[in-house]
Amino acid sequence: xxxxxxxxxxxxxxxxxxxxxxxxxxxxxxxxxxxxxxxxxxxxxxxxxxxxxxxxxxxxxxxxxxxxxxxxxxxxxxxxxxxxxxxxxxxxxxxxxxxxxxxxxxxxxxxxxxxxxxxxxxxxxxxxxxxxxxxxxxxxxxxxxxxxxxxxxxxxxxxxxxxxxxxxxxxxxxxxxxxxxxxxxxxxxxxxxxxxxxxxxxxxxxxxxxxxxxxxxxxxxxxxxxxxxxxxxxxxxxxxxxxxxxxxxxxxxxxxxxxxxxxxxxxxxxxxxxxxxxxxxxxxxxxxxxxxxxxxxxxxxxxxxxxxxxxxxxxxxxxxxxxxxxxxxxxxxxxxxxxxxxxxxxxxxxxxxxxxxxxxxxxxxxxxxxxxxxxxxxxxxxxxxxxxxxxxx
Length: 393
Hints:
The chain is mainly alpha-helical. The protein is 66% helix and 3% strand.
């Protein structure tokens, strides 16, 4: 059965996949936070990457697929922007506020007056609210005695790259004509077909054939390079994650050509396991493709009782953004805590926090996206643009 047929519905296992990925990141962080570095993580010595690294790749492949679908299904760019903002910001703001105003004052080695007067306290919040320029991970005097000293929330770095992927995708949509009116045409048989077929990536390189596509690629990369110089990003992380994200995007765009079957899944899984043991560019390319295939097979094909998880909610983002500072606090409060004790305690506590966050904050915020988008359009029409100025936006 084609991927396109599965992707038409909303009943899938993506929530469960993301939850598994979030807990994989949590597990990897347990090794680093107890031991002071991630070198003791078992998979690192075997594969050169941790289970958390694989989980982050899973997040970006999944995100590329779903965000592309979201963008192409929206009636305007304003809808897309509000949907993304209301997914990212509510839980992120809570994580930043809890870290800066509850954990920070409790665990800092500075006097409270010194803590709140220190510019780094407010710098942490400011950069947290502007994820596209990168996060600050330090609060003055906080967790300085921990084995993984000083880092308050080391999970947030991926959000910077996630936002950059959204920006790139939006720029492609605008500049290449991914609008609902312009990116599709009807052929002689009455079937809709893609006018522009993006061959998204080779490692570090987009295969492009239009000047607008080149510009759409170079513009966000150029902005990112400048930001990297100003804010000391790790540029080396950008291209692999961009590759994973746009592999997911390409799977969505080519969904009519991709068949999901148990036989192909078995082959893809075997190749995936084999590719994990080979650190080279060709195997990195193979790894991303077969990882994506395995993700989408697991997301759509297994049905039945496994789908009951969707009745609970989408807790993965809450687990991801709240876990690290909670783990650091547990390490600070419980001397000589073991990796597995930290895993157990932090898992129970962060799930409770994530459940509350989803039902009382994130879900309610997402319900406002259409209202906010409509108000934004009205504001633009009334104050900034002529009557037709927001068409397509």
